[in-house]
């Protein structure tokens, strides 16, 4: 196992009715800014629950944070926070609202151009404190340090991570997810699954506990995902799905093991250039990345095939192939197509993506730092 430091300070308030308890988590004299997206929280009653939990408190609002949150929009919130002297941010929504709010939190005290936080990975040491009321299980943003932001003007989707933007608390009430459209549940299953794969499907380092935790999240997603799609108000299925998605990317399963993240890096480009949902890009790219890089991932592919999918017969080649096919079939079965063509996208952006990887110096990616822009091109060529 590799050395690691693990410190996750996010307090989780899990279960029905927990929004009512957020008042106690926010300093009594705080001037609070509630941030949200396009209005789903007003339609499903979450907004009302938040407002009543904060009755009598000093509260302002900033809505309109779009999916794949825009730098341009977030900078308007930064101005508002600075002008109003806001001292606590409460993100109410999915990963985009949580990520957008983390960026706002980091940008407010940042000296210089906040775009540098993303484009130059400028160090973030301070942030406005924030909390999250999560309404979409998928990204793990509610319990991690990451945020992904898009500059609409240049179609660039970039991430940053800083322990300064760990939420102080996150509320995970499965009932808030009952109103999600099927597409977003499907997306959440694929995103969480891929987060596990990015941290698990690499090469063995004798870390059996991390492996088994990862496999148990995958198996739970395989069991609970279809249940929660079939019956959106099955509380238990949704609770199990929600907790799986959080555990998939809160740092625990990735501690002490190599990590990949090439699928995500390529996926972000497909979202930036073609507007595909984040999880749609992962469903397209992951099977191809496993195929192109199967030699380096051989032992873990065999282990994954056996422990997660029960593949124990055939030659090693056949078992590896089946494990990848099972992954693709699972994504398709939960309603997320795995080919670019299914979204009406061709291979025309491959040279652009390749050039962007070069320009950003992303020439040695993956768990073995052997993924250069040529390998990215091979992976994308298989996505048609
Ligand atoms: O904007 P509103 O009206 O709230 O509607 C949203 C949005 O249209 C809707 N929605 C959310 N909760 C709902 C709901 N509709 C009905 N009922 C509810 N309870 O769902 C739509 C999608 O929301 P969004 O927040 O964009 O989805 P998701 O949570 O999948 O977040 C995706 C973003 O997170 C980033 C992605 O790149 C993408 O920008 N990621 C963040 C990560 C992280 N912070 O660690 C890791 C991930 O790999 C990912 O990159
Ligand atoms: Zn993701």
From TrEMBL:
Domain Alcohol dehydrogenase iron-type/glycerol dehydrogenase GldA span(s) in chain numbering: 9-174
GO molecular function: alcohol dehydrogenase (NADP+) activity; butanol dehydrogenase (NAD+) activity; metal ion binding; methylglyoxal reductase (NADPH) (acetol producing) activity
UniProtKB keywords: Oxidoreductase
InterPro entries in the record: ADH_Fe/GldA (IPR001670), ADH_Fe_C (IPR056798), ADH_Fe_CS (IPR018211), BDH-like (IPR044731)
Domain of life from the UniProt record: Bacteria
Stored PROSITE patterns: ADH_IRON_2
Gene3D superfamilies given in the database record: 3.40.50.1970, Dehydroquinate synthase-like - alpha domain
One Pfam family per UniProt: ADH_Fe_C
GO cellular component: a single term: cytosol
Record domain Fe-containing alcohol dehydrogenase-like C-terminal: where: 188-355
Protein name (Swiss-Prot/TrEMBL): NADH-dependent butanol dehydrogenase
Species this protein is from: Richelia sinica FACHB-800
């Amino acid at each position: 196992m590799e050395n690691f430091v693990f410190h996750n300070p996010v307090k989780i308030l899990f279960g029905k009715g927990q929004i009512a308890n957020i008042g106690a988590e926010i300093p009594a004299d705080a001037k609070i800014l509630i941030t949200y997206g396009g209005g789903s929280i007003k339609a499903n009653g979450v907004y009302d629950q938040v407002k009543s939990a904060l009755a009598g408190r000093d509260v302002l609002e900033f809505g309109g944070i779009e999916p794949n949150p825009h730098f341009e929009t977030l900078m308007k919130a930064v101005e508002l926070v600075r002008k109003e002297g806001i001292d606590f941010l409460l993100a109410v929504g999915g990963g985009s609202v949580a990520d957008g709010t983390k960026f706002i939190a980091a940008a407010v005290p940042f000296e210089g151009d906040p775009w540098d936080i993303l484009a130059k990975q400028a160090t973030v040491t301070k942030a406005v404190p924030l909390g999250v009321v999560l309404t979409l299980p998928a990204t793990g943003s509610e319990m991690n340090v990451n945020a992904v932001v898009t500059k609409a003007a240049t179609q660039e989707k970039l991430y940053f991570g800083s322990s300064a933007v760990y939420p102080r608390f996150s509320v995970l009430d499965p009932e808030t997810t009952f109103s999600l459209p099927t597409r977003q549940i499907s997306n959440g299953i694929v995103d969480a699954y891929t987060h596990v794969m990015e941290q698990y499907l690499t090469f063995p380092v004798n870390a059996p506990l991390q492996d088994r935790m990862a496999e148990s999240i995958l198996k739970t997603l395989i069991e609970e995902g279809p249940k929660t799609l079939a019956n959106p108000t099955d509380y238990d299925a949704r609770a199990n799905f929600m907790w799986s998605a959080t555990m998939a990317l809160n740092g625990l399963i990735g501690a002490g093991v190599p990590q990949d993240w090439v699928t995500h890096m390529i996926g972000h480009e497909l979202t930036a250039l073609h507007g595909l949902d984040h999880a749609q890009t992962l469903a397209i790219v992951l099977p191809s990345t496993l195929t192109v890089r199967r030699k380096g991932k051989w032992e873990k592919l065999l282990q994954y095939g056996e422990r997660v999918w029960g593949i124990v017969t055939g030659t090693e080649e056949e078992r590896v192939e089946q494990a990848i096919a099972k992954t693709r079939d699972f994504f398709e079965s939960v309603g997320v197509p795995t080919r670019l063509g299914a979204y009406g996208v061709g291979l025309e952006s491959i040279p652009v993506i390749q050039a962007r990887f070069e320009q950003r110096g992303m020439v040695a990616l993956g768990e073995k730092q052997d993924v250069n822009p040529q390998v990215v091109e091979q992976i994308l060529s298989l996505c048609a």
